[in-house]
Amino acid sequence: MKIAIVDDEKKQREQLNEYVLRYLREIGQVAECALFSSSIDFVSDYTHYDIILLDIEMPDLNGMDAARKIRRTDTEAVIIFITRMAQYAICGYEVDALDFMVKPVSYFNLSVKFEKAFRSIPRKKICSVISDGTTYLLDERDIFYIEGSNQHVIYHTFRGNYKVYKTLKAVESTLGKEFSRCNNSFIVNMRYLTCINGTDAVVCGERLPISRGRKKLFMEDINRYLGGL
């Protein structure tokens, strides 16, 4: 699980982070927590998060506009707005925000919102992979792309790379609708597709070539994915 805290006030970021970690300890949940002081930095290199605590009043890009940008590529993240004035949060329905918290945020308030957030997180699709004799359970949402070579594939993920002795075709048949093959060697998770640059698909800074034979279907998959947002 991945959680993002986006707030330009350092004291507020650290306080929220402390509350989140406390809540996770109390429920026995493990998660990665990332802190951002700039909403522009957050959305410009956005990767999927399960829960986002997002300040509305920020100097560079306000939280509502940041949320709109996030929703272009991620419809599943649970967004909770943070604000000094509750009336700013009434437009949260536009970006399907779960709720909002008014500053100063108390631990009790955060724990109530997080209990609600955990119930709202979409059920994960887990794939089991065996790499170097060890079985790993990977969340599909954590996979950037999958690389195929001869009789093995490499899963490129948040947690590192996993080499598995399978064919890319066999792996492809098990994946969800977020995945699309851009050539004979790569399957892309469209959550992390940043742009199409010439004949390359850019995924988390990596340029993956789009073959002529795959381009039409790949672009159709992208349009279908974006159309479902």
Can you walk through the features of this model?
This protein is an alpha/beta fold and 229 residues long. It folds into two domains: 2-120, Rossmann fold (3-Layer(aba) Sandwich), CATH 3.40.50.2300; 126-227, LytTr DNA-binding domain (OB fold (Dihydrolipoamide Acetyltransferase, E2P), Beta Barrel), CATH 2.40.50. It is 30% helix and 33% strand. It has a five-stranded parallel sheet with strand order 2-1-3-4-5, with helices on both faces. A five-stranded antiparallel sheet has the order 10-9-8-12-11. A three-stranded antiparallel sheet has the order 13-14-15, with no helix packed on it. A hairpin with a 2-residue loop joins strand 14 and strand 15. Helix 1 crosses helix 4 (107-120). It is globular.
Record the SSE blueprint.
Elements: E1 2-6, H1 10-27, E2 32-36, H2 39-44, E3 51-55, H3 63-71, E4 78-83, E5 99-102, H4 107-120, E6 126-131, E7 134-139, E8 143-149, E9 152-157, E10 160-164, H5 168-172, E11 179-181, E12 186-189, E13 193-197, E14 200-203, E15 206-209, H6 212-227
Parallel strand pairs: 1-2, 1-3, 3-4, 4-5
Antiparallel strand pairs: 6-7, 8-9, 8-12, 9-10, 11-12, 13-14, 14-15
Helix pairs in contact: 1-4
User: Could you describe the largest sheet, including whether it forms a barrel?
Assistant: 5 strands, parallel
Low-confidence stretches: none
End-to-end separation: 21 Å
CATH fold label of the largest domain: Rossmann fold
CATH C-level category of the largest domain: Alpha Beta
Strand order of the largest sheet: 2-1-3-4-5
Look at the structure and give the mean pLDDT.
89
- CATH architecture group name of the largest domain: 3-Layer(aba) Sandwich
H/I helix tally: 6
Spatial extent as radius of gyration: 19 Å
